[in-house]
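pls read this stuff:
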Amino acid sequence: MGATEKLAQFVVDTSYDSLPEEVVTAAKRAVLDTLAVTVAGCREEAAAIITAYVRELGAAGEAGVVGSGFQTAASEAALANGTLAHALDYDDVSTSMLGHPSAPLLPAVLAVAEKMGAPGKDVIAAFVLGFEVECKVGSAIGAGHYARGWHPTATLGTLGAAAACAKLLRLDLAATRAALGIATSLAGGSRQNFGTMSKPLHAGIAARNGVVAASLAARGFTADASIIEAPLGFLHLFGVGDHDGEKAVASLGQPFDIISPGISVKLYPCCYASHRAVDAALQLQKETDIEPRRIARVEARVSRGTAIPLIHHRPQTGLEAKFSMEYCLAAALLDGKVKLASFSDEAAQRPQAQELLQRVEMVEEEQGQPIVGPATVTVVLDDGSQHSRRVETPRGDPRAPLTWEELVAKHRDCTGDILPDAVIARSAEIIADLEAAADVGELMDIVCLTSPRAQAPRAR
């Protein structure tokens, strides 16, 4: 069998009951974190635009749009919720796909699950399998895919969303293969759009296209049966000579990618390539109490390739600032924290930040592990004294994971201005015991504000 056949067969054959307990736990952690940042994202300007667009379509009410109080067609709910999930760049990261695995995947899964009334066990299995497909194909396509300018969250996310929806729809081998083929023709996404609303739109489009691909396949729509490995297929089309089709299927479920290398959860709502340096800068600020006015120069020495997504060196908007190492370090040193408020347009444009970021220099190492290697931040003061910190592993990395309680705290922080306290707690309870849920109706009513309890005044 070729790679496409093996991927499709794995999706068809793998059931919830065959998943290790640690895989189920990892999936629930990802659901909690991703729903939290999706709710937080509903207040963004991009969210308002995409929600208004979807509402105007007037499609049948099959699945809810987060934070909106209305339902629409499952595909359009996936479009809106995927965009919201990635709107803050606060969603999780995978080193296998060099992108964001859950933002394009979970909205597609929840939309189809809500439409079908699928039980929690099916939701978990679909999420895990979609994650496995996007990440294993991500490992196979090579770093050239990202370096060339493709956004893997969009390209690989489309495949993952299609595989997950195929599982929820209980498609057979031929139809699942077709879903992957249709998804390949729908995939796309340019990194040139980083720092604009079109970056989160990539996740929304991937989610919608996953729903569309699986739904068409369920109706008998056809596609090439070897689309992953074929001469004009996914790997050859999107890869840059360093792809390996066999690598996509050599270790399916052995282990599951959601466990190893696992998921990196973000503590800061900005590009993950900056997080090690931000950790180092915050440590310096906390331990040495540096006065920003005394900073003469800041150097961030990072692993090779780190600068690839950090394309805005003199950001003028909050969205651009998320992809600026210079601004992220300036914010950390000025404020002693990097939070959602750090990336408003006003915060990015303030004179103190604009002045300090011009004294920040990012230097890439020529050797060593690309992108995911250590970062060293050195602050030179006006008297010539220097202070340095090196961070190998950022908090939230699979090697330094957050506890469930810390994830719940992030969930509460993200949703606290939108949902009542009791409803926030209930949503976390549902996710913690998701495998026991008869369906996702109550959870979606909460986050979509279609439940009277969710619309009640916050108890604060």
Observations:
- The first helix runs from residue 3 to 13.
- Residues 3-248 form a domain with the 2-methylcitrate dehydratase PrpD fold (CATH 1.10.4100.10).
- The longest strand covers residues 295-302.
- The mean pLDDT is 95.
